[in-house]
Amino acid sequence: MSSNSIRVGSVLFASAQQKGGLMSRSAAQQIEHWARLGKALEDAGLSVPQMVSMLQDQHSSTGTSETTEQQLWQFKRANQARDLENVRAGRIPGERMSWFSGGRAKAAKLIDSPY
User: Fold this and answer.
1) DSSP code of residue 86
2) Rounded CA gap, 95 and 104, in Å?
3) How far is residue 14 CA from its own chain's centroid?
4) Which residues contact residue 47 at a Cβ distance below 8 angstroms, ignoring those fewer than 6 apart?
5) Which of 6, 16, 18, 113 qualifies as a cystine partner to 27, CB 3.0-4.6 A?
6) What does the DSSP assignment read for 17-38?
7) CA–CA gap between residue 16 and residue 115 (Å, rounded)
8) Rounded distance between C-alpha atoms, residue 67 and residue 46, angstroms
9) Among positive and negative, which fits the CA dihedral 97, 74, 69, 63?
10) Which Pfam family is one of those matched by this entry (predicted)?
11) How many CB atoms lie within 10 A of CB 78?
12) Angle between helices 10-22 and 27-43 (to 10 degrees)
């Protein structure tokens, strides 16, 4: 496996050493793990605050921290529907929504989507 060197802040590195040690990961492995989680969030169209809110809501309503993939998609679709409504109502300009930028939304062909 090839690798590249990057600089990370000392606070992040120390945190990665501490948390990684609990999971038998090196600091580099822990940072890679966190990077994969962040990428998955972005790929799903969720921000960190949205994910935290969703997980907290799920935990408080069920008493468990288990969240299914279906619940993640429901959360994402609800946010998308809210965003679309805000754009259609003129409360938010479409240009502020990254998935509306550059005319891509008009050119997109949605398959099996309720929108």
Assistant:
1) H
2) 11
3) 24
4) 41
5) 16
6) HHHHHHTT--HHHHHHHHHHHH
7) 41
8) 15
9) positive
10) ParD_like
11) 11
12) 100
In whole angstroms, give the CA distance from residue 50 to residue 45. 10
Kindly state the DSSP code that residue 47 receives in the 8-state scheme.
-
Query: Cβ distance 46 to 76 under 8 Å?
Result: yes
What HEC string does 50-82 produce? HHHHHHHHHHHHHCCCCCCHHHHHHHHHHHHHH
pLDDT digits 0-9 by tens, 14-63: 999 999 888 888 999 999 999 988 888 887 778 878 888 877 776 565 55
Provide the 8-state DSSP code for 45.
T
Q: What is the pTM of this model?
A: 0.48
Residues 6+ apart with CB under 8 A from 51: 41
Model confidence pLDDT, tens digit, residues 52-97: 887 777 656 555 556 677 777 787 788 788 888 888 888 877 766 6
The amino acid at residue 32 is E
